[in-house]
Give the backbone structure.
Amino acid sequence: MTLRTQHDKPVYVRLRETIADAILAGKFGDGDPLPSVRALAAEEQANPLTVAKAYQGFQDEGLIVVKRGVGMFVAPGARARLRDSERSRFLTEEWPEVRARMSRLGIDPAGLIERTSA
């Protein structure tokens, strides 16, 4: 995992995106253990309190479960719920911007699809 280079977002938000991307990509499946706060902090060169804040957000959403004395694990169904929420966010927030930029640049969506599938 590596933090995205968008520095306009707080570090804990970028950490959340990094963790979510790893779950969505299948690096961590439902029930899999997640790196400890200290291990992830060292890997991402972040403050452990910031990592804990990112994990706490996932725990509050029910995407991570904590087994006391054992560690943190991806909750059952977390990948599907993350995929649904990310898909919804993309369609409502990102896609309109992408579509508008394509329009400004004169890029035809159908032509783009043909070009990438050729």
